Backbone:
């Protein structure tokens, strides 16, 4: 969980970069679930045993900015063809069954709450 000082710390950082924000009023906000896969990389694959079900998930908010390319690739996969835009075969579910998650040259540094959720958040 974030420390109790997080809102004040964020406000200090914001007003340091944008001094005009000192006069801004907070009127509300949004919160969303971060939906990462186990290795924090996309899952682009069909589901074995459920014909016609395909996944394009696991990359949380980063998926929004690459959605057009993902759509083109997944459309090819759904059509039974290799993706023409970029090879997406590494993003299949089999990597988790085989215990070989993706790891690039610049791996993500796990954020502690993603690895060790607070006891209040555990199911």
Residues:
């Amino acid at each position: 969980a974030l420390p109790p000082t997080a809102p004040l710390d964020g406000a200090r950082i914001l007003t340091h970069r944008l001094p005009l924000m000192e006069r801004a009023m907070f009127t509300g906000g949004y919160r969303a679930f971060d939906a990462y896969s186990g290795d924090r990389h996309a899952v682009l694959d069909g589901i074995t045993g459920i014909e016609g079900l395909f996944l394009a998930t696991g990359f949380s908010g980063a998926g929004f900015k690459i959605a057009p390319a993902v759509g083109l690739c997944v459309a090819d996969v759904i059509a039974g063809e290799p993706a023409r835009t970029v090879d997406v075969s590494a993003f299949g579910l089999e990597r988790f069954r085989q215990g070989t998650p993706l790891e690039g040259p610049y791996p993500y540094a796990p954020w502690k709450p993603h690895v060790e959720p607070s006891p209040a958040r555990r199911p």
In short: The two ends are 15 Å apart (CA to CA). The longest strand covers residues 43-46. Residues 6-17 form the longest helix (12 residues).
